[in-house]
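tokens incoming
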């Protein structure tokens, strides 16, 4: 897979061109998907409701959705989204303004990944491309979720660890700040990721066995300390909320709950596709550096990855989303030997990317043409069957962006050089191109399918004048949040309300006694969930 000796890089002036190209690609990867759509199911709708309530109430210590009991959650991401929403909503829609908080934290993640990669390997920009090219990160990196702030905190902390051998105090400062951001974003898991490395690194690496490491630990603890201000204020506000948060978050983060974890190998099963192509590149680097595993550029990413995998595998909750932080050390490890990748291996990886993204782009363009023109008819019929009521409209600006992204990818992909760095650039450009097509040509269709606006606007038309309160039955948190935002309706647990909104499944056709159906609807393309609005007949509760 590798040459015995690395091939020298091109002349330095070419590096400036590459840096500019990579910065443009990073922005092209990060910005599309943040604008132009409503909160999507499931996480965005729920988190939007929390931030919307924070803006409305001004309370950032305790959250709650309409007619729900207050609960505590680390507030950093929600506060950031509330600030973006409050000050930028005159320029953007409220969901888009809030979503810029995600872009803010993803930008921090990319910057500190680049710094850590430069410190460890001298290839910081390629660490960014490998991270951005990870398939599992793409969708989550543009959602309104607190995990983006956790990722930023982890990137800052990892950069601090990478700095330790040369600048211990600055490294400790960044490590403490990063862990504090992680803690204020997702709770104890933001600290738990780094406790095993703090213990294991001195055992396996000589660099960490000295008094400078004690200074690093003390500085990290000092800069982590401000993160305790929120738990202290929460306790002052409500000891009961603090106690509930402490037990639930501590148990979930460290796997100390009553029930044993039923899927301890969940994340090992997720990584092969979630971390593609980062994981195979990291394994290849591990093989190439197998005689130098004690060096900083390999030891640190290995210990961090194993620690994160262990902590996540011990927790009680399993979601692909939570695997995002593991991509950071994998990206750094994958970058360690990218200069030494053999030409035939780089060429195979390069052509695999060209064929994969070329086919994906062809399908997206052909599907969009069918959506616009009705031809080819078989493809247009399939799309229409999935979303019968969708009416496509041509937009010159999205079309121009999609066309330019496709041309740029073709210009980059079919250059004659075949080496490790060029293959990484080509893969990342393919990811950017496909994401650009989805977020330009297909964004209206996706927004119609994944959002709630059309459904609730349809329900609004069926509401009687002066309808009063509405009881919500079996409604999820995301649905309650969107109902409050779009219609200003607080779906209560109140059986005295004249109207009743029930969330059910399409197979349930039962007619509740004493109720008359006023409206029935669902999100476009959703064959499972159904929403039915009833009015209580006179003489019934």
């Amino acid at each position: 897979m590798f040459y015995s000796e690395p091939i020298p890089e091109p002349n330095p002036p070419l590096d400036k061109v590459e840096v500019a190209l990579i910065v443009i690609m990073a922005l092209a990867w990060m910005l599309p998907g943040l604008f132009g759509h409503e909160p999507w199911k499931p996480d965005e709708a729920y988190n939007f409701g929390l931030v919307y309530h924070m803006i409305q109430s001004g309370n950032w210590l305790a959250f709650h959705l309409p007619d729900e009991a207050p609960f505590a959650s680390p507030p950093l991401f929600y506060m950031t989204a509330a600030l973006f929403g409050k000050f930028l909503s005159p320029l953007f829609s409220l969901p888009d303004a809030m979503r810029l908080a995600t872009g803010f934290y993803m930008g921090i993640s990319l910057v500190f990944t680049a710094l850590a990669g430069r410190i460890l390997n001298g290839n910081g920009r390629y660490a960014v491309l490998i991270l951005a090219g990870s398939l599992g990160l793409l969708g989550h990196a543009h959602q309104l979720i607190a995990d983006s702030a956790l990722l930023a905190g982890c990137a800052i902390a990892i950069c601090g660890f990478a700095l330790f051998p040369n600048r211990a105090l600055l490294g400790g400062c960044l490590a403490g700040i990063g862990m504090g951001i992680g803690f204020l974003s997702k709770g104890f898991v933001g600290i738990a990721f780094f406790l095993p490395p703090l213990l294991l690194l001195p055992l396996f690496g000589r660099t960490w066995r000295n008094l400078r490491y004690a200074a690093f630990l003390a500085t990290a603890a000092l800069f982590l300390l401000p993160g305790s201000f929120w738990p202290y204020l929460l306790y002052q506000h409500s000891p009961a909320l603090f106690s509930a948060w402490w037990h639930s978050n501590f148990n979930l983060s460290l796997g100390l709950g009553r029930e044993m974890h039923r899927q301890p190998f969940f994340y090992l099963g997720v990584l092969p596709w979630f971390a593609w192509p980062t994981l195979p590149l990291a394994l290849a680097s591990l093989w190439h550096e197998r005689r130098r595993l004690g060096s900083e550029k390999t030891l640190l990413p290995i210990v961090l990855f194993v620690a994160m995998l262990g902590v996540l595998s011990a927790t009680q909750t399993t979601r692909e989303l939570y695997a995002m932080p593991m991509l950071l050390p994998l990206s750094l490890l994958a970058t360690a030997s990218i200069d030494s990748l053999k030409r035939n291996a780089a060429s195979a990886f390069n052509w695999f990317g060209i064929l994969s993204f070329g086919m994906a782009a062809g399908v997206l363009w052909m599907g969009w043409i069918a959506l616009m023109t009705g031809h080819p008819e078989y493809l247009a019929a399939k799309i229409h069957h999935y979303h019968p009521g969708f009416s496509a409209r041509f937009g010159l600006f999205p079309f121009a962006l999609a066309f330019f992204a496709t041309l740029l990818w073709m210009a980059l992909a079919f250059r004659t050089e075949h080496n490790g760095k060029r293959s990484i650039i080509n893969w990342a450009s393919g990811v950017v191109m496909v994401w650009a097509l989805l977020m330009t040509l297909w964004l209206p269709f996706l927004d119609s399918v994944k959002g709630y606006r059309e459904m609730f606007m349809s329900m609004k038309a069926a509401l009687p004048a002066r309808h009063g309160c509405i009881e919500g039955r079996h409604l999820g948190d995301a649905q309650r949040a969107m109902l409050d935002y779009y219609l200003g309706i607080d779906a209560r647990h109140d059986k005295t309300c004249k109207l009743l909104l029930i969330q059910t499944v399409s197979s349930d056709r039962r007619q509740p006694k004493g109720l008359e159906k006023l409206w029935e609807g669902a999100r476009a393309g959703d064959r499972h969930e159904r929403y039915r609005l009833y009015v209580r007949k006179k003489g019934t509760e």
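note: The first strand starts at residue 470 and ends at 473.
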